[in-house]
Design a protein that fits this description.
Distance between the termini: 33 Å
Largest sheet: none
Radius of gyration: 18 Å
Structural class: mainly alpha
Order of helices and strands: HHHHH
Oligomer: single chain
Number of strands: 0
Length: 153
Amino acid sequence: MIRKLIFNIETLAISKFALVGLVGFTVDACLLVVGVYGLGADPIPARAVSVFVSVVVTWVLNRIWTFDARREESPWIELLRYLGSRSVGAICNVAVFSAAVRWFPYPVSEPIVATPFSSAATMLINYALVRFFIYRPKTAIRSEADSETAASR
């Protein structure tokens, strides 16, 4: 019964994370289109900017909705931790995007087509990092505290 409850809670969190990711993807793609097609920017620097902005947007939404974070630490410290964990995913994202834009044939080489491929490729990496590095389940936090208390005895 407890396993089923944990499974349901985790499934809900993954679903919310995916929806927030869809919002982040929309922000990312819109900014990329404006930068590349509207302003004539090079696709790779434009993508770096669009990814950064989308990461900040997803932090706010994940904090408020997905993981319902009521934390004691400063939101600015949490944002720095989130940016740190998501930078791993962002590096993977931009690497897949860059490879697609530079080395794949048309239509995959089009920035707007390469974007969903690179975003999908990094979603699971991002979820794992955010879920277990930033918003760890309370049982994991509690068991760590219990271990530290037991070790100090």
